[in-house]
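S., here's the first fold you wanted:
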Amino acid sequence: MREKKKKTGSYRNLSPRTRFLFGAGLMAYATVGMWWSPKIEEALGMVPSSEEQAELDRKLSVKISSVER
């Protein structure tokens, strides 16, 4: 517990400009990762086949059913 306080305390001790740049850097890193991940998957041959994609879409689909009161 004490270790967690130290980490948040050290983050809060940074200047506001440094905290802003740190947050903006993390957001940029995540954006680049999401943008390039399909291209990297294609280069490594990890793209799912149409059957695999259809099965994945079926498993992840949200099923909503209405219930009468």
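And the second, which I think is the more interesting of the pair:
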Amino acid sequence: MNVGFFLFDNALALDIAGPAEVFAAANRLRRSGEAYALSYWSPRGGPVVTASGMIIDTQPIAACTPDALSTLIVSGGIGLDDAARLRALVEPLEPIARGCERVCSVCSGAFILAAAGLLDDRRAVTHWEDVARFKTLFPAVHVETDPIYVQDGHIWTSAGVSAGIDLALALVEQDLGRRVALTVARQLVVFLHRPGGQAQYSKVLTGQIAAESRGATSRLGALSGWIADRLGERLDVERLARHCAMSSRSFARKFAACYGTTPARFVEDLRLEAAIGALEAGRTSIKRIAAETGFGDEERMRRVFHRRLGISPQSFRARFGQCAPSNPPPVSSGTDSTLHIAPA
């Protein structure tokens, strides 16, 4: 399989090197020849200087033909919200991208695919800091805010920087099977698989950022961290309001204004995030995880997992945990590999 990386000056090196190492590691596991042939392309060819100063030798994309690549991976980089720069990148790339069997982007590389019209009426993801600009520039794209990567048909998009490694592992699993993908992940010392729908970033951190940006008081702004330290305790509106020295009604109104969600939904988000991390990380019993993360019992946690993720905690661990078997039961069938996190 021929995998081509499209990059440009000020591209992010990890967007390229991370996925490339995944494919190279998969090649090293093969006894009957390499599975992936890697190539590097740019608008003009020659040396390309990444944002970190790394220099990568490339071929001119004009020398490529649509059938030369089975997979095209478009890097992210600095300044991709500039319309003139986007046009300069899209023009030579578009005919190649439209002819590839599988087209992918890492981080802000989604801006390039969107500018080429390849993401119109499709689900996509980009780095969380770029979501607002992306929605403004490309209203025809159904951009999502939480997933690490999204597959919509033959097009895959992934979120911030290191998510390109997760995407590449998913491609290897699709091409060569789960056993190979798991072995590659172990060799690279990364999580065996983060589900595509796992949030890009900590709910605690983003809660703090959102609250502070909306003028929250110091106590209300720090509340997300306070909640995260007490997930196993009772965290109803009355207790949270008392901690912030407010009435329940005033607290609920101010919390929603600062955090953009209800207190109950936010607490559930943090509990779900903590339970996901515990299921991925080790062998702690599901009963204990349910108690420590505040769900109370296994049945309540099971209901939340089914409602939000469409999968039970047991199946989640079997598929995504570090101790997962090589051939776990599938979550669902079809071409969409994303594990959805549904609204509460």
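Why I say that: The CA atoms of residues 27 and 34 lie 5 Å apart. Residues 263-281 form the longest helix (19 residues).

Talk tomorrow,
H.
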